Each structure stands twice: as structure tokens, then as C-alpha cells.
Amino acid sequence: MPYAFLLDLDSTTSNAPPRNLSQYAHGLFYHLLETIDPVLSKQVHAAKRVPFSLSGWSENSSVRLRIATLDDTLFRPLLHVLISKSVTGLELGQHAYQITRVFATPEGDRNAGVTSWPDLLAASERDRVTLRFLTPTVFTTSRSDGKRHYTPLPEPRLVFKSLLATFQAHSPEPYSNTERAALAAVFDEQLILTHFEIRTKPYRAGKNNLTGFVGTVQIAYPERTREVKRAFGRLAELAFYSGVGAKTSYGMGQVRLEP
Amino acid sequence: MPYAFLLDLDSTTSNAPPRNLSQYAHGLFYHLLETIDPVLSKQVHAAKRVPFSLSGWSENSSVRLRIATLDDTLFRPLLHVLISKSVTGLELGQHAYQITRVFATPEGDRNAGVTSWPDLLAASERDRVTLRFLTPTVFTTSRSDGKRHYTPLPEPRLVFKSLLATFQAHSPEPYSNTERAALAAVFDEQLILTHFEIRTKPYRAGKNNLTGFVGTVQIAYPERTREVKRAFGRLAELAFYSGVGAKTSYGMGQVRLEP
């Protein structure tokens, strides 16, 4: 089941915010995974599309972490170890932190939530999606020389092909190759940007200094094919849990679906 | 010589702003050209990349038109006919207007200016350009089915390939085919977006309702090839006169170079 929950942490040893939060949060996450199961941790690390997204904000000695998982095998043991660690404390960078609060539902915080894969697969058809990009977002594109390049623009095809790839990697019912190719072709050519208000924002994702965009983007599918509208609805719901684009495990590409 | 000048017009018969200003301004422009020389008017109309850009703003009974030309054969007779018409009046839509002011230099208005092709060709090398998109901007891209599509995003390659095509069409010293292809390849792959703050804005360009973007965009060329930096400098200077992207003769894609 896709889950997104928030942890409020407070440092017991320092008043200063952690320097490179995305790097430390990433490290903490894998450290926790390793505590649970070293094999699982290695598997997750090696996955082409990791089954979680992770972001954090800090204010003085307090840190809020958002952890979203797409996969039950990850969520349940993770919650278990977090609860046990909440007593002994967590390390984020060089300092010790204690969990002070957990938010697991949108009533507690609108960046938290839970859905089930059956519910997500049964998502309503849509011909329009408004996404609020909360943290800097980039897409990985490759150049003719094979070099990796980061694009900080909400091209509809990049947004939806990123979500489609994640869906294929983690949904219990992925599309067949033929269906996937047909959807990718539609996303390449038929989606339009109907509204946006965006700006660049620099971001340190682990060891990379990147320029991403934040803001609101509305994307529409103006044609009538129902299978596309259904996929559009599913992927829109998925985005809240998976994030969008590159470096979502370092806090980039966190989004919220707007009404 | 590339010129950009502004005309303030005041209606003598109506207090209402003209309904479809871009359409009427476009019509007025060709009407004036025809007064000068019917053959010239036809030639300009048939050009793949027209040698002028045109935009307008209105406030109550006042209209401000900005006319920018890339071509002496257009500017001098145009100015001549405008001066003679300033006595008898101009028609914009169903109403008569009189020219109340003309701005031809940046001291009068920062959207006016003049340069010469030799000066433009000698523009300083640049590795960074900040453009302020004053009116909604779109780029024409074609789909695999050949259908025309409008992209409202400042992809660096679209911005600079649009400017390069205009440069090739109107510069007295265009690049050779080999040089042009080399520059296009660099624009496709090596430019990066270092900053932007943009939003969509709907626009009626003649008979088309389009969604363009406005705002500030900074594009950088991070490599060292001097011929590219020189082209970057030239095209940045050209943008103020030519506009950027599609429908510049209907008021879209007007830009100002920021320091």
C-alpha cells in the first residue's frame, strides 16, 4: 500500500539545523532499512526506481521528514523500527534526534496519506491534473553523447512518463508492454500545458547541486480515449506517494494533487 | 537596421479599447505597407519569417503599439507613411485613431531602440543571457502526425533556434549551412536553464486562442567555444527587435534583454 507519513524530529544535542539534510535523511533511511534487513536494504538501493520518496525540512533544531513508500514490504518493518527507535533516538548527520510526532493521515497533515493499490488502480478517469510541486523538481534526460542532463521544466511528457515508469515498477498490475508503449506515445504527443506558475529553486541532492522548479502546473489530455483518461487518473494519484522526476529519494519532486 | 519604436494612439471616435488588438494591429500594419508598396506588402506577408514584430497594449481609448523591424526597406517607408498618416489618422478596427506620441529611443521608453547590423554582428561574446518575456510566448513544434503544436515553455533550444532562424533570414551576413548546423546542435544539447520565474498567460493572436508564458528566464552556455559565445551575444541582441517564438507579428514573444 502506498503510504506517506511525516516524522517530527527534535535534536537532543544541537540547536543547529543539519547541514545537508537530503544527504543525511537518505543515509538515515538506508541505515534503518539495514537494521531491519540488510538484504532488503541492498535490494532497495540497487532498484532502478526506488520504492520510496523522501524529503525533509528543518527549522532550528527541529526536522520534519516525509517518507512515502509504494510497497508494503517496506512500510510495515520501517514503521516498526521507527517506533522502537523513537525511544533510543535517531542519528541525522552528527547529531542525535528524537521523534516527537508522527502524522500518518491527511487530517493530521495534508502531506500525509494512505491509499491501497486496488483503490489507486480504480482511480477515477481524468482529463486534467493540477500538481503543486512542493520541492525542486528535475527530469533526467540523456544527450546524444550519452551524458546525463537535468531538465527543470514541467514538460507534460516528462512528468507523465516519469510517473508511468514508477507505476510499471511498483504496481501489482502493471500495463503490458503494448499498453505501456501506447500510453508513452500519447504522453509524448497529446498532453498540453493549460496553466502554470513556476520558478527555479537551487537544491542540494546528496552530492549534486541542481536547479529544479517549484510551483503549480496544470496538464490536460484533450482527447477522449478512456484508457488514457484512466491512466491519467491513476498516475495523478500515484504522484503524491512516488514524487515526480529524478532524485525523489533525496527530497526532490515532492508533489501534492490539487483539486 | 533593426529598429523598435512605439506609437501612442488615441481614438477620436470611441472611448472603448479595441476588442482584438493583435488582429487589428496586424491588419493596420499590412494596410500601411500596402499604402507604401503593394508588392512589398505581398512579399512581407509571404515571408516564412516576417521581418518585423508587432505588439500592442490598450488602456481605455489609448493604444500603444510597438513596431520593430529588422530591415531598412521596411522601416524608412513605414516611418514616412506613419508621419503622413499622423495628420489624417489611422484605423484600428472600427475606430479612428490619431498618433499622439512616438518613442524611438530607449531614453524615451525602454522598449524602444535602434541598432545597426554591423553593431549587432560585433556584439560582445556572452555565456549567459537573461530575457524578460513581456508578452505571452509560444514555440511551434510539430508532432509525428505533422500537426502543429504550441509549446509554452522556455526550452533553451527552442529560444535560441528560433532566434537563429530569424538571424539567418534577415542578417546581411548569415552563417553558412555548416556553421548554422553546428550552432543548432550546440543549442539542442549544451544550453542550460540557470534561473526562471514564469507563468502562463492566455493570448488571442489573430484568430487563435493560445496559452503562452511570460516572465524572466536566464539561459547559460557553460562551454568555452568562442564562436558559440559570439552567436549567443548576437542572438541575445537580436531578440529585442525580432521577438522570440511564434506569432511575433501578432504581439507574442516580445522580449527585453536584462543586464
Please give a structural write-up.
Two copies of one chain form a homodimer. Chain A contains seven helices and twelve strands. The first copy, chain A, is an alpha+beta fold. In chain A, the strands form three sheets. In chain A, strands 1, 2, 3, 4, 5 and 6 form a six-stranded antiparallel sheet that branches. Chain A has a four-stranded antiparallel sheet with strand order 10-11-7-12, with helices on one face. The first copy, chain A, has a two-stranded antiparallel ribbon with strand order 8-9. In chain A, helix 1 crosses helix 3 (72-88) and helix 5 runs antiparallel to helix 6 (177-189). The longest helix of chain A is centred in the N-terminal third of the chain and has 17 residues, at 72-88. The two termini of chain A are 22 Å apart. Strand 10 of chain A pairs antiparallel with strand 10 (192-205) of chain B, so a sheet runs across the interface.
Greatest interface and its participating residue counts: A-B, 21 and 20 residues
Mean pLDDT over the full residue set of chain A: 91
> What portion of residues of chain A is helical?
25-40%
The count of β-strands of chain A is 12
Radius of gyration of chain A: 18 Å
Q: Give the oligomer, counting copies of the same chain as homo and different chains as hetero.
A: homodimer
N-to-C SSE string of chain A, H for helix and E for strand: EHHEEHEEEHEEEHHEEHE
> Runs of chain A with pLDDT <50, length 5+?
none
Alpha-beta content class of chain A: alpha+beta
